[in-house]
Amino acid sequence: MSPSERRFVISLGCPDRTGIVARIATFIAEHGGWIVEAGYHTDINTGWFFTRQEVRADSLPFGIDELRRRFAAVADELGSRTDWRVADTGERRRVVILVSKEGHCLHDLLGRIGSGELDVDLRAVIGNHRDLGPITEAHGIPFHHVPFGKDPDAKAAAFREVRKLVDDHDPNAIVLARFMQVLPPELCEAWAGRALNIHHSFLPSFAGARPYHQAYERGVKLIGATCHYVTAELDAGPIVEQDVIRVDHTDDVTDMVRKGRDAEKLVLARGLRAHLEDRVLVHGRRTVVF
Amino acid sequence: MSPSERRFVISLGCPDRTGIVARIATFIAEHGGWIVEAGYHTDINTGWFFTRQEVRADSLPFGIDELRRRFAAVADELGSRTDWRVADTGERRRVVILVSKEGHCLHDLLGRIGSGELDVDLRAVIGNHRDLGPITEAHGIPFHHVPFGKDPDAKAAAFREVRKLVDDHDPNAIVLARFMQVLPPELCEAWAGRALNIHHSFLPSFAGARPYHQAYERGVKLIGATCHYVTAELDAGPIVEQDVIRVDHTDDVTDMVRKGRDAEKLVLARGLRAHLEDRVLVHGRRTVVF
Amino acid sequence: MSPSERRFVISLGCPDRTGIVARIATFIAEHGGWIVEAGYHTDINTGWFFTRQEVRADSLPFGIDELRRRFAAVADELGSRTDWRVADTGERRRVVILVSKEGHCLHDLLGRIGSGELDVDLRAVIGNHRDLGPITEAHGIPFHHVPFGKDPDAKAAAFREVRKLVDDHDPNAIVLARFMQVLPPELCEAWAGRALNIHHSFLPSFAGARPYHQAYERGVKLIGATCHYVTAELDAGPIVEQDVIRVDHTDDVTDMVRKGRDAEKLVLARGLRAHLEDRVLVHGRRTVVF
Amino acid sequence: MSPSERRFVISLGCPDRTGIVARIATFIAEHGGWIVEAGYHTDINTGWFFTRQEVRADSLPFGIDELRRRFAAVADELGSRTDWRVADTGERRRVVILVSKEGHCLHDLLGRIGSGELDVDLRAVIGNHRDLGPITEAHGIPFHHVPFGKDPDAKAAAFREVRKLVDDHDPNAIVLARFMQVLPPELCEAWAGRALNIHHSFLPSFAGARPYHQAYERGVKLIGATCHYVTAELDAGPIVEQDVIRVDHTDDVTDMVRKGRDAEKLVLARGLRAHLEDRVLVHGRRTVVF
C-alpha cells in the first residue's frame, strides 16, 4: 500500500439530531482531512444516525492515536458512547478461520488471499477434522486440528482449546466457514461483533440443520446463503449479506448443495470484506452496510 | 392464432419405469404428430415421472376429443389415473381475478392483456372494495363489488357470492391478485389446482400478515415474492415461481413495499403464464414447471 | 404529502478539494436544516466531487427561493458554475411521454401512476400512431396523435409539432417509451438532461434497430434493457439504469421480445424515478446515481 | 461412482422431422435402456433438431462401444452425419488449463476439483509465466512454464510447444483461464469445440483488450463475463454461459476488476461443467445447452 492509499476509517452511530454531519465534517476539515468516501444514514424508526468516513491518512497532521483521541471528544459530544471506531487501513486485518470437513468456503478464501484480492493476515485455520489441513498448509498457513468429541465435556474442552488458539491472535474476524459446530454462549459473547458465520439458506427460512433438504422438501425455486454475526440465538444474528441462486425441479438435494456452494462462497467473501473494511454497523438485529 | 400455431398439449405424471418416453413418443408418431416442444423429468426420490408435450394440432388427423380419447388408453397403460391432461391452445383460457384495494398486480395483468402479451379471456374482476372498479371497466372487463363484512356470517355469505360469480365462468385460473382474504377450506378444495395466489415474501419466510414489516424487522438483504397454488394451509401451497429484489439499510418498510411490488408483478405474471400454458405439474408439495 | 415529508433536494458537482462536505453541511446546519439523506462521491479519475442532500423543508426558516439564492453563493465558492440544482419535492414533477404502437412501457407507467406508486403530474402522452390513445384517455390523460410521414419534410414538421406540444408543459422529464423515432439534434439539445429513452438491449451491445434479433443471432444468454439520456449520438447517451433477464436456447426472438419487455418496464421505471428524484448527476458520458 | 450412477450420454443434432423422438426413445427402450434425463429442442428458424439423453449404463445389455455402433445406424437414418456423440460418464474427463499471471479462475477451478465438486482428471496447467506454478503443484498437478516472447517467431514456437503439451493428453477440454494470448488459427481449428475461453465482459460488448476499462468509460451499470468456444474470430465464438454483476458510480476500474472476477469464476465453472457433461451442442454461432 502506497502512503497515498492509506486511510483512516471513522465509523459512528449516535442519536439523530441536526448538525451531526456538519460537526464531523468540520472536525475533519479543520485538520485538513481529505474525505475520499463518506456514507450517512438515518434510521427514522429508531431515530439513530450512522456514518462512515474514509480520510486519506497523509492528509492529516497526526497519526491514528491522536485522531482517535481527538475524535473521542466529538463522539462524546454526539452522544455516541462506545458506538464508534477509528481504524487504520495500514494495519492488515488479522483473521482466523474455523472449518470442519467441507472445504469450498475455505478454498475460496484461500484463493482470494493467494491471488491478492483479499489482503488480510490469515493467522490460522482451525479444524475439528484433519481434512482441510493439507490445502491450508500448502498456502503457508498454520492449521490446527482440534477434535470435537460427542460428549459435552469433550466438546467443552475442545471449545476451550479453540478459544485459546483464536484469542492468541486477537483477530479482527473469526470466520465460521461451514464450521458445523454451535458456538457456546460464552464464545458468542467474547467474539461478539467479530464472529461471522455463513449459513447455507436464505434466512430466516431453513435455519438449523440440513437447510438444503428443507428447501427441497418445501419446493422453493431459489436457494440462498446468509452471512451473519454469530449470536447466542442460533442463525438469528444480524445479517451482513445474502444472495440466492435459481433452482428448478431438475435439481435434487445434491444439485442444490452444489449450486448453493457458489452462493455461500460469494456471500461469505462479500460479508467478510465489508466487515474488515469497517463498513458494517450493527444496530439491534439490523445492520447498516456502507 | 394461425392454424399452424395451434398446439395440443399433453401433460402426464405416472410411476417411473423404462419405456415411457418411447410409449408416448411412438403414440404421437404413429399418428404423424409433430412434437414442437417436449419436457421430461423423473423425480428419483419419489419414483415419479413427468412429461409435457406440445404437438402441432394440424399434424394430427383428428381433433382434441379424439386425441383425448386415444391418449386415455396410453395414460391408463402407464398407470396415470387422473394425473394427465390434454389441452388445446386454440381455446382461450378463461381467467377471473380477485382483488382488494391494492392495484399494482391488477394494473400489471390488465396491461399485459391489453398489449396482447397475455392472450387470455379475462371474464371478470371481483373486488371486496370498489377502488379498482374504474380501471377494470376502462379495459372493458366487468367488475363485481362484493363487500366483505367483519363478522363470520357476512364473510361466509360474501364468499358464497364470490364463488357463484367465479364458478359461472368455469375459469382455468382464479388469480388472487393481492386479495387479502383467506379462502375458506371448501373454496380451496373446489378450486384446487386452479387458484393462484401471490404472496409478498420469499416463502417460507414471512408467511401470514405484513411480510414486509417482518422482513424489515429481521433485517434481510433481499425481499421476495412467491406465486403458489392456494391450499387449506395458509401460504403453504405448492410454489410455482419466486423471485427476489435486493434491498439495503436505506430501504424502510415503505421502500420495501414499493420495490417488492415489482417482484410481485413479475412473479405473478410468470406463474400465471406457466399455469395457463399447462407447464405446471403438481406432485405433493412440489411442482414441476416445464 | 404532509408538511413534514416535504424536502428540499440540493445536488451539486464541483472540482474536488478538501472541506467541501464541511462547507455544505455547515451551511445547512447554520440554518437549522435537518438532513434526512446525504450522498457524496468523488470521481478520482476526473477529480470531480458530487453530492446530493435531502433536507426537511420545515426545518429551514425560509422557502425554496431563498434557499436557492443563498446556496448559489456556496456553489459559486466551490467552483460549481451551473452544475447544481435545488429542488422542492412539494412541486409535483411534470412528465410527458412519447409513444408509438408498442404499449407495454406506457401501460406500466400508467399503472404505477394510477396506483399512486409514481406520484407525478403526467401532462400528456403523444403518439405517432393512434393505438395507445384509448388506454391513455381511460386514465384521464390527454393523448395527442402526431402522424409521422416517411419523407424528411413531413417528419421535420411532425417533430416541430411534437416539440410545441411538449414544451408547452415545460416538463421535468420527456420519456421516450419505445417511441421508435430518432430525435433530431435540435431536440436532443433542447431537451438535454430531460429526455430519457428506454433501449431494448444491454448497451453498448445491440445499439440501433432490432436489438432482440441481433441478440438472437449472436446467441447471448442474457438480454437486457438500458435507460439513458438522449443525446445526438444514437443510443450512446449517459446510462441511468440497466438490467438483464436470462434466456436460453428455447427462447426464439418472439420469446425474447416478450421477456425483454419486463426488463424494459423495470429499467425505465427505475430510471425515471431516479431522474425525477434528482438522484442522477451527469458527468461526461457517465452518471452518478445517488 | 457406483455402477448405478454411471450413465451413457447420447447427444445428437439433425434436420427436424416428425418421429425423431419416437425413433430414439424406441431404440433405447428396445434394449431396456432407462432414461434418467432427456432434453429435446427444435430450432424453428433453422429446422434443426437437438437432443441429449442420459441412460443408466447398467440398464443396457452392452457397453459403450456396442451402443455407439448401434446408435450410429439410428443417427445415420436421422441424417445426423457427424453431429452426434455417445459419452460414458464412467470415463473421467481429461482437462488442461492454460493460464498467465492472474490466478483467480485457476484458484477457483483447483478449489472445485480439490473439494470434489468438479470430478475431472486435470492433467496439466500450462502458464506463460511462472506465477501460478506453486499453487498448481500444491494441488499435485504438473505445471509447465512456456515463456512467450514478443516477436512472432518466438510466439509461434511457444504455441507449438503448448500444442504438444496439450495434445499429449488428448483432453476433452482445454480451458483458457485468463490466458491472455490469442490462439493462432491452426490451434483454433485443432481444438475446435474443445477450447473454452472466459472473457471478462458481457459479449458482444467490450470484446478485445481491457474490457473493464471500456466498461468504465461507457458508464455501464452491470459488468459481465462470457464463457465461449474459441474460434478464429477473436471473442466471437459460440457462447456457452454468461452472467453479470451490478456496479455503480462508486466502483472504479479496480473495483470492477475485483467484482468482475466473481462473475468470471462462476461463468467459467458453469460453462466448463456443461461442456464436460456433454450438455452443449453447437449450431452455427449459437449453442443449445441442455
Strand content of chain A: 25-35%
Determine the CATH topology of the largest domain in chain A. Answer: Rossmann fold
Shape of chain A: globular
CATH architecture of the largest domain in chain A: 3-Layer(aba) Sandwich
CATH class of the largest domain in chain A: Alpha Beta
CATH superfamily of the largest domain in chain A: Formyl transferase, N-terminal domain
Distance between the termini of chain A: 22 Å
Could you characterize what this model shows?
Chains A, B, C, D: One of its GO terms (biological process) is one-carbon metabolic process. Chains A, B, C, D: Pathway: Purine metabolism; IMP biosynthesis via de novo pathway; formate from 10-formyl-5,6,7,8-tetrahydrofolate: step 1/1. Four copies of one chain form a homotetramer. By secondary structure, the first copy, chain A, is an alpha/beta fold. The first copy, chain A, folds into two domains: 3-88, Alpha-Beta Plaits, CATH 3.30.70.260; 94-289, 3-Layer(aba) Sandwich (Rossmann fold). Chain A is built from eight helices and 13 strands. In chain A, the strands form three sheets. In chain A, strands 7-6-5-8-9-10-11 form a seven-stranded mixed sheet, with helices on both faces. The first copy, chain A, has a four-stranded antiparallel sheet with strand order 2-3-1-4, covered by helices on one side. A two-stranded antiparallel sheet of chain A has the order 12-13. In chain A, α3 crosses α8 (253-276). The radius of gyration of chain A is 21 Å and the shape is globular. The two termini of chain A are 22 Å apart.
